[in-house]
Structure formats: structure tokens, C-alpha cells
Amino acid sequence: MATSKGTGFLEYTNVGMVDDVQYTYYNSTMKEPVLLTDWMNKIKGREFWENRTWYILHNEQILKWSLINTVQHFNHTGVHTYQNLGGCELHDDGTRRAYSSHAYDGKDFISVDVETMTWIAAVPQAGFYKRKREADTDKQQIIFNFYRQDCFQSLQWYLQYGMETVQRKAVPAVTLIQRKARESAGTDVICHVTGFYPREVEVNWIRDGEALLEEGVWSGEVLPNGDTTYQLRKTLTVSLEDQKKHSYSCQVNHTSLDEKMDVKWVPEAALNMGFVAAGVLAALGLIIAVIIGSLIWKKRASGARSPDYTPAQTKEQSDASSNSSNSTNNDRCDPIAEKLMTQPE
User: What percent of the chain has pLDDT over 90?
Assistant: First the structure.
């Protein structure tokens, strides 16, 4: 991709891929491209890499030239981009295909027909570019030699020397995740498939072991994990009624598997019913134990404040009580003595 000058963005970026494995990188701030895989060093020595470097640097000049001419033709100002996606494919049946397409500001602009060695304008405004490119026969020959010969030869070497990386296989791991549906009273079941390579994978939800489901199924995109493997999520929404009537499983088909992997979904409510019942009983037992313990504690505390026995009196308490009793009895039971004590001598 080429970007307008003076914008702060990289003026040119080039990425080389074999299938989905990046093996080269270059941008306009670097002196030369860099290799990102060890197996590239094994391919035909230094001569091969020098040849690939020349193509990358040559393409930088072509794309910068293309951007400048296109911007000038449209009399545009500001930030603009010019992109080129090109490559070649080798198929198992022996057929092969080469392609090269160009985009201006993210929209299809023009492409190359390798077989006829002509340029095909995707929009009428690309006619001027077609005439310019076809008039430069020397550069035309370089481009068509690459897409007719060099690209296929390079790809064969990549596959030969990078077989352990490019043609390896990693088996997927499958996990089913259950959650309450966001827009209904049912359940969302997520089939999370991860750790697989190559990228191509087929994931389906199956009902009752045979019916392929499309309705109520949402599929995410295949995403990179960052360790050259991939992941994918496929979500099924199941109503509460259908959960009782049908069985569901997530089926995965991948080149690393000898046969399709089938993972059955067991609703968590049914799976955990025994645990829930045990938990309820344990909670009831705990409540009863707390109530009994509370009653015992209250009874003991009450007994400490109101004892059932009368404590023995001390000697002082006994004497005081006796004198008080005698005085009271005398006052109340001997009126004659009281009268004599009050008479004058």
C-alpha cells in the first residue's frame, strides 16, 4: 500500500504471505525487506532472496507512481491510498491461477488479466491508468513474467522448504459455554473452537444427531490467536421448551481430524440438579442448627440472671435480720411495756 506524502503515515508497506503465514515485511523507512521465517533462508541461497528483494523494491516504485498519477488525474488533495493485492495459487488437481488487483482509496480501481496481458478498468475513471500501463511495454513484461512464472516457482519452493510451518496441522479444542439469552427467555450456547490450523474449519450445530441448524444460529469470524492458530465461535439460541424436547451438539470438521468431532450439550440446569438439591438440604440443616443453638444460648443466659436456689445468708446479714425482726415484734406485740416506758417516774 502507498500513502500520500506528508501525512505522518508510512508511504509504502509490503507484506509477503504463504497461505496465512507471513514470511516477509518491508516499509518505506527500512533499507531492505526482512525475512520472518527461518525456512526462507534455505531456498536457493542468497540469490533467490536478492531476486525477491528486487521485486519488493520495484513494486514500491510502481505503487508510489500509481498513487501520484491517480491523485493528479482526479485533482484530489488530502490523504489518499493506493493498494495492490497480487499472488498465485496452486491447487491439488494441478490447476493454477494468478491475479493482481488494484484499489484507490479502498475501492476497486483496476486489475490485471494475466492470460491476455491486459488491464481491466473496474470503474470508467481508471481508463487513463489502463492506457498508461499498457503503453509501458518494458514494465508490462516484468509484471507478466512474475505472475506467469516466478510467482509459481517461488510458491513451490515455499511449500517444499516451509512444509513444517505452512502444511502443519493443529487439532482444535472445543468448549461449550452456556448463558442466558439476551433477547429471549431461552439459553445461548456458545461453541468455542480454538487452537486449530490451517484456517479452514467447518462448525455446525446439530439437533437430535442429524438435523443441521441454521435458524437461531449466529457465527463469528475466524480469528487469529496470535500463535499462528485460529479460533471461531458459533452461538445457538435454544428456547426452554426445545431444551426439554431435543438434544443438541456442536459438530466440528477440520483437516487435522480423522473424523468429525461431535460435542453434545448437556444443559447446566439438568447437570447441576443434584448439586442444587444437596445445597438446599445443607442450607436447611444449617438454619435449623443455628436456631437450636440460639435457643440453648438464651436459656443458659436466662438461668445465669435468675437462679432457682436461695443463697445462704452471712452472719452479719443473719444478726441484722434478727434484730430487725425483734424490734418489729416488740413494737407490735408488747403494748404494756411501751406504756410503762413512757410514764414519768
Answer: 57
Q: Is the pLDDT of residue 235 over 90?
A: yes
CATH 3.30.500.10 in the chain, residue ranges:
2-166
pTM to 2 decimals? 0.64
Residue limits of CATH 2.60.40.10 in the chain: 173-267
CATH class for the domain made up of 2-166: alpha beta
**What would the 3-class secondary structure string for the chain be?**
CEECCCCCCCCEEEEEEECCEEEEEEECCCCCCEECCHHHHHCCHHHHHHHHHHHHHHHHHHHHHHHHHHHHHHCCCCCCEEEEEEEEEECCCCCEEEEEEEEECCEEEEEEECCCCEEEECCHHHHHHHHHHHHCHHHHHHHHHHHHHHHHHHHHHHHHHCHHHHCCCECCEEEEEEEECCCCCCEEEEEEEEEEECCCCEEEEEECCCEECCCCEEECCCEECCCCCEEEEEEEEECHHHHHHCCEEEEEECCCCCCCEEEEECCHHHHCHHHHHHHHHHHHHHHHHHHHHHHHHHHHHHHHHCCCCCCCCCHHHHHHHHHHHHHHHHHHHCHHHHHHHHCCC
pLDDT in tens, 132-161: 999 999 988 999 899 999 999 989 888 888
- Domain 173-267 in this protein, CATH class: mainly beta
Confidence of residue 24 (pLDDT cuts 50, 70, 90): very high
